[in-house]
Design brief:
32% helix; 11 helices; 322 residues; single chain; 8-stranded mixed beta sheet; alpha/beta
Length: 322
């Protein structure tokens, strides 16, 4: 990882509230190599999307406080002026947002929106940009791309809109593509098609992909490495195969146990993690997962630091001893 494309160091995102400064993302650190697919997983509210928005500098709340460093291609994104970030967004860094219907402008055709993005970042004519937009829609597996380019978002299915979002994100050949829940609310067949497109990105476009999801099945299929987040912190991070074969953090174990098994005896009920993630106002001072953990020990009253265990980073006092 000496030539990491993205290097996040101790990212913290907090918000000023009437009850004081409220930490949401706490000390998140990870790296991404070039042409790598890295997945960030966790339950809703774990801080996944907020971490992605921090990379893009899209947290506009005046009460937000961000500290730490996010290095991308040799520059700290948190220290860049607003004009430089506008140049990077959609160019070197692109994002597929969670809901393509709300991310696309309803009063412009999808082709016009792709053309606009291309012309903002590249000095090309309108006709050349439109040709590029139609080529991208075709590359996304859309039949009759010229016809689709002239349609409005509400005239397309969810899967088609998601493909348009991917085409728009790839329009300027980004080095980093952030995909926030790209298969949410899509049927199984369309999900598989979208995942195949993500796998082709680094082959056909040379992009690295930061995939945000809560679906461990998606992670197993496409990710090279995994970062497991819980309550705004990194619980475990490492190679996908190693984490699936021998998870070290109890939270990771719980996520994997909840996946239906293809073989073996049929269970009457899938195992579930008891309880719910703590509210940001009620996070315990120690391990945030301790109230839901079957392996809790007195040491859990103190927050564990990320430490190397069995070839990956784990934040658990009992990692490696179960």
């Amino acid at each position: 990882m000496s030539e990491a494309l993205l290097d996040m160091r101790d990212l913290c995102v907090s918000f000023r509230t009437a009850r004081g400064v409220l930490p949401i993302v706490e000390g998140v650190s990870f790296q991404m190599a070039r042409r790598e697919i890295l997945s960030v997983v966790g339950e809703s509210g774990s801080g996944k999307s907020l971490t992605a928005l921090s990379i893009m500098r899209l947290i506009t709340d005046p009460n937000a406080v961000m500290t730490g460093e996010i290095w991308f291609q040799g520059r700290d994104l948190l220290a860049q002026p607003a004009e430089e970030m506008r140049r990077l967004r959609g160019g070197a860094i692109a994002m597929i947002f969670q809901d393509p219907m709300t991310a696309l402008t309803p009063v412009y055709t999808v082709g016009a929106q792709i053309v606009e993005q291309i012309r903002v970042h590249q000095d090309v004519s309108k006709s050349a940009a439109r040709k590029r937009a139609i080529e991208l829609l075709g590359a996304m597996g859309i039949a009759a791309p010229r016809d689709v380019a002239g349609r409005f978002p509400h005239q397309l299915s969810g899967g088609m809109r998601q493909r348009v979002m991917i085409a728009m994100a790839l329009s300027c050949d980004p080095a980093l593509l952030i995909a926030d829940e790209p298969t949410t609310a899509l049927d199984v067949t369309v999900q598989a098609q979208i995942l195949e497109l993500l796998l082709k990105l680094r082959t056909d476009f040379g992009s690295s992909v930061l995939l945000i999801t809560h679906d461990m099945g998606v992670v197993a299929r496409v990710a090279d490495r995994v970062v497991v987040m819980y309550a705004g912190r990194v619980a475990e991070a490492g190679a996908t195969a190693e984490i699936f074969q021998s998870p070290q953090h109890p939270y990771t174990m719980g996520l994997l146990d909840a996946i239906p098994k293809l073989y073996g005896p049929k269970l009457k009920r899938l195992p579930a993690i008891p309880g719910a993630p703590p509210s940001p106002f009620e996070r315990p001072p120690g391990c945030a997962f301790a109230p839901r953990c079957a392996h809790e020990v007195p040491a859990c009253d103190t927050r564990p630091a990320l430490a190397m265990v069995a070839g990956r980073d784990v934040a658990c006092w009992r990692a490696g001893v179960r």
